[in-house]
Amino acid sequence: MNAPFSSIGLIGNVTDTRVAECMLSLVSHLSRRQGRILVDRSVELAFAPGSVTHCEARDFAKEADLIIAIGGDGTLLYASRLVAGHDVPLLGVNRGRLGFLTDVGARTMLEDVDTVLGGRYAEDPRSMLSARLERPGAEPLTALALNDVVLQKRDSGRMLDFQTAIDDNLVNSHGADGLVVASATGSTAYALSCGGPIVQPELDVFVLAPVCPHTLSDRPIIVSARSRISLRLMERPFGRAQVTCDGETLGDMQLQDVLYVEKAQSRITLLHPPGYDYYRVLRSKLHWGRGGHDARSSD
């Protein structure tokens, strides 16, 4: 196998038959090379004897030189938490729905993987978010996120009242279903459905997007990623909240708690085959230019 990728980890939810088929195809293809292929211990597929090494997914970042995430963006978000703080790049194969982060298609998967293993790829570093939920008298809860940290209501039909501050300066008091704090990468995820802007991934900013605000003037804003964002609940009968990081629950939030969000020291690196174009991805996933003057141009 071509250096520097002598050990490759494969991650994917193989209960999805499309993911399982891709993983089997990749293992069969890669096993013809000299190198090691890692899969999670929980994966039970009919691999050829001796073609894979099973290990715990949490150890992939220590054992692999490259991780290939097969599935949707959720799979790549999971993989990003595994490699955060380690110098292990990620390559995404799209077997999900939109696939803003997993840009390698199933039809060209083997060809694109060979291209990357041959040393021809573009590196795409992405910043991460650090969330810290502090509660008096208890150890803080912490987590990393590539896309977003979200304060959201737990009770259907009951709005939250909360305050946001940036570097200890009060910004606003909100009545809403919650707030999305998104990285530039996450601007095309939950924040986008809340009316937030699409932000070029290279920009060092956060998007703060209220979820279903009660006041129409409560609009998304963009702030520097050097900022420290803090969120506090305000007194409201029966209002209950929780915090999620890339869709994974960090914990419930109570009146006396404070949620801090800032730029993480860890970052990840995505790999793309040659010719990757962020704006072509946007045109494809968001169906820009269809039916208009650009309909004659092909992507």
Could you explain the architecture of this structure?
With 299 residues, this protein is an alpha+beta fold. The protein has a 6-stranded antiparallel β-sheet with strand order 7-6-17-14-9-10, covered by helices on one side. Strands 13-12-11-8-15-16 form a 6-stranded antiparallel β-sheet. The chain is 17% helix and 37% strand. The chain is globular. It folds into 2 domains: 7-121 and 273-296, Rossmann fold (3-Layer(aba) Sandwich); 128-266, Tumour Suppressor Smad4 (Sandwich).
Produce the secondary structure layout.
Blueprint: E1 7-12, H1 17-30, E2 36-40, E3 53-55, H2 60-63, E4 66-71, H3 73-83, E5 90-94, H4 109-117, E6 122-134, E7 141-145, E8 148-153, E9 160-166, E10 169-176, E11 178-183, H5 190-193, E12 205-211, E13 221-224, E14 229-233, E15 241-245, E16 248-253, E17 258-272, H6 278-286
Parallel strand pairs: 1-2, 1-4, 2-3, 4-5
Antiparallel strand pairs: 6-7, 6-17, 8-11, 8-15, 9-10, 9-14, 11-12, 12-13, 14-17, 15-16
